[in-house]
Amino acid sequence: MTKRPVFRFAPSPNGALHLGHALSALVTHDMARKMDGRFLLRVEDIDMERCRPEYEAQMLDDLAWLGLTWEEPVRRQSEHFETYAQALGKLEALDLLYPCFASRKEIAAHADAGQNDPDGAPLYPGLHKGLSSDENSARKSAGEAFALRIDMDKALQAARAIYPETLTFRELDPVSGQVKTIPANPARWGDAVIARKDVPTSYHLSVVVDDALQGVTHVTRGQDLYAATDIHRLLQVLLALPEPLYHHHALLSDETGRKLSKSHKDKALASLRAGGAAPQDVRAMAGLAMP
User: Fold this and answer.
1) Are 38 and 108 within one domain?
2) pTM of the predicted model over 0.90
3) What range defines the domain where residue 152 resides?
4) Is the bond preceding 186 in cis, omega lying within 30 degrees of 0?
5) Would you tell me how many other CB atoms lie within 10 Å of the CB of residue 49?
6) Is 93 found in the same domain as 74?
7) Do 36 and 16 touch, CB atoms closer than 8 A?
8) Is 264 part of any domain?
9) Is residue 19 part of a domain?
10) Are 25 and 68 in contact (CB under 8 A)?
C-alpha cells in the first residue's frame, strides 16, 4: 500500500500571522489536498522569550478561519528538547561540535569585512574553535553561556564518508511536477550554530529532527529559507535522516520591495479579518486562486 505524502506548516508563535504566512500555509495545504496528502501543523516555539501562548491561540484561530484543517495532536517543539539533545549527542559523538562563548558584538568585531552567511550575518571567524578542553571546561564551570557550533570542515568530511556522492537537495515544481536536483553548499554557512546559548537546539537542528520524526515527505516554505536547505541536508546525512522533497515558494513584499515580516506588523490576518476581509479575499491578496 502506497503511503500518503506528508506536508507541514510550521510557524513560530512570536507575533501575529501576516499575509505572507497565509500564502505559505495555503500553498502547503493546497498541495496536500491536490496530492491526497496529510497536512500537519507544527508550532516552532523554541524561542521561549518571544513565543507566547496568546500568539499561538490567535495563530490557530487565524488558520482555522482560513479554512485549514490539520491532524491532531499539534507538535510543539518546546515539549521536545530532550529529543533534540539526543541528536546533539550523536553529532558530539562524531566530534563535530564545539562550544562558542563569543557574543554577537565580538563576532562582528573580528569577522572579515564583507564575509557574511546567507542570512546576512557576519561569517563566524572561528574565535573559540581552538580552545583547549581545559579552557572550555573552566569557562563552562564559571557559568559562561555558550552556543554549540558545527565544525564545518569536519562535518563535510564526515558526510562524504557516509554519502560519497555530491550533496544535493531535490526541488519540486508543483505545477509541472518536475523535480530538479540542486547542489547543496553548506560551507557557505561556515561553522553554523547548532544549539543556541539560550535553548539546547536551533532552528536547523529541530526542524530536520521533527521532519524525520513526523514522516514529512514534502517541505514547503518561502524562498528566504532556500539557503538553509544546505545545512539541513548536511544534518540529514550526518544523523541518518530521510531526505524530503522541497518546494520554496516566492515571497510577498510591500510596495518598496521589502518582504512582509512580523516585526513590521505587515498585513496581520487579525487586522484583515477585523477590517471585513473574507478568507477568499486573503487568497486573492496572496495571489492564489481558489482550490
Assistant:
1) no
2) yes
3) 80-202
4) no
5) 8
6) no
7) no
8) yes
9) yes
10) yes
Question: Do residues 38 and 130 both lie within one domain?
Answer: no
210-216: long-range pairs with CB below 8 Å, 24+: 210/10, 210/42, 210/75, 210/77, 210/80, 211/8, 211/241, 211/244, 212/236, 212/239, 212/241, 212/242, 213/83, 214/6, 214/8, 214/40, 214/42, 214/75, 215/6, 216/6, 216/7, 216/8, 216/40, 216/244
DSSP 3-state of 196: coil
In a domain, 15, yes or no: yes
Number of domains into which the chain is organized: 2
189 shares its domain with 102: yes
The CATH number that applies at residue 152 is 3.90.800.10
Q: Using the structure block, give the residue that is written with the C-alpha cell 482560513.
A: 66
Q: Which of 165, 150, 148, 8 is nearest to 75 (CA)?
A: 8
Burial class (CB in 10 A: 0-12, 13-18, 19+), 78: middle
CA distances from 10 to 21, 99, 163, 210 (A): 10, 28, 29, 10
291 residues of the chain, pLDDT tens digit each: 678 999 999 999 999 999 999 999 999 999 999 999 999 999 999 998 999 999 999 999 999 999 999 999 999 999 999 999 999 999 999 999 999 999 999 999 999 988 999 999 999 999 989 899 999 999 999 999 999 999 999 999 999 999 999 999 999 999 899 999 999 999 999 999 999 999 999 999 999 999 999 999 999 999 999 999 999 999 999 999 999 999 999 998 765 555 655 555 557 899 999 999 999 999 999 988 877
